[in-house]
Amino acid sequence: MELFSLPVSSYSAKVRIALELKGIDYQASPPPGGYSTPEYMQYVPLGTIPAIQIEDQYISESDVIMEYLEDKFPQNSLLGSDPHKRALHRFLARYHDIWLEPHLRRTFAHCDPATRVQSELDDHLDKFEQRLQKLEELFEPTPFMVDETIGYADCAFPATIVLAEILFPLFGREVVLGPKVSRWYEATMANPVVKKITDESRQATLEWMNSGGG
């Protein structure tokens, strides 16, 4: 299996964590020709990352990839067998993808003070903080989000929080985690797979920013 990804991508990190937790062999490569290029879009029409190639088939969108991995490789299931817990995993992962992460991503356009629109930046930061606080109400750490073992929902959030820890100080703010999220984050980041991949993501993001974000 080939995974088209970039180390700075939180969604790529999410899929990499899932692949390694499930023990699936894969090779990570940058998208052929680059992100959203005509060459890459011959294979992945939306031009997005991550995407996977298995033989002559291409699958994109991180949540679709995650579901495919659970179907294709049932070993070391990240969803488990309990229907309610499976639904909660999916709900929390969806919360990350739709309600939380997009507000952080939209701050990228304001990293350069020369082109920053402060009112827009403040709105995105405020909403990210509100959604992060709302997360406190959505799960009870056990110590992971749904169960005693790390699972599907736990793959989504670590790289996003790491990215927030990098970006917020640039804007004069600090990431504040509530007590439940803090307990979950400590337990999740102690997992060697999560730590390795988020460390790589952190380093790549810092290098990208130091190079001017080009």
TrEMBL record:
* Recorded GO CC terms: cytoplasm
User: What InterPro entries does this protein's entry cite?
Assistant: Glutathione-S-Trfase_C-like, Glutathione-S-Trfase_C_sf, Glutathione_S-Trfase, Glutathione_S-Trfase_N, GST_C, GST_Omega/HSP26, Thioredoxin-like_sf
Q: Name the PROSITE patterns on file.
A: GST_CTER, GST_NTER
Q: Which protein, by its recorded name, is this?
A: Glutathione S-transferase
- Give the GST C-terminal domain ranges: 82-207
Q: Which SUPFAM superfamilies match?
A: GST C-terminal domain-like, Thioredoxin-like
Outline the extent of the GST N-terminal domain. Answer: 1-77
Task: Give one Pfam hit by family name.
Answer: GST_C
